[in-house]
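agent: user wants the structure for Adenylate kinase from Streptomyces spinosisporus. delegating to structure tool.
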Amino acid sequence: MQRILVVGVTGAGKSTLARAVGERLDVPYHEMDGLYFCGPGWAVNDKLAETVSRIVAEPRWIIDSIGYPEVRDLLWERADTVLWLDYGRRVVLPRVLRRSLRRSLTRERIFGGNRETWAGWFSREHPVWWAWSQHTGRRAEIARRTSDARFAPLDTVRFARPDEAAAWLASL
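agent: tool returned. relaying tokens verbatim.
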């Protein structure tokens, strides 16, 4: 495990697991949303492909994402391990709700200095709506990729429940 993708639906705990694995294995952790959103107003990094290319050229890294479309194949082709948090809506939706409530209440700064707002809750782009609407499709995309012959060399570890991921992490 030198080049690791932590994948799953919104709210599965990808960033939390990636950070913890990175610390335990001393592998540099990169937050994909932090790479993608680069400034106020949810400005998008127009050099994302270049940034990600530099990261994945390194011998060791961990990234918490299936990858945005423009870098998805690059990530999957360079990774050697996929940690898949394959959790149902009953697990992820309460997590997303709690996280978004906290961020909205505390006005916590996230990616590029942006904040989740109360008005944002009415947008289809809000994490709660996104987690609900993208859940089935994202799981299917990850399942397709993990069974794709192009990515057969990847060591895939699939966790169906948070306690499985916690036990695996404790065993590292």
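agent: one observation worth passing along. The mean pLDDT is 93.
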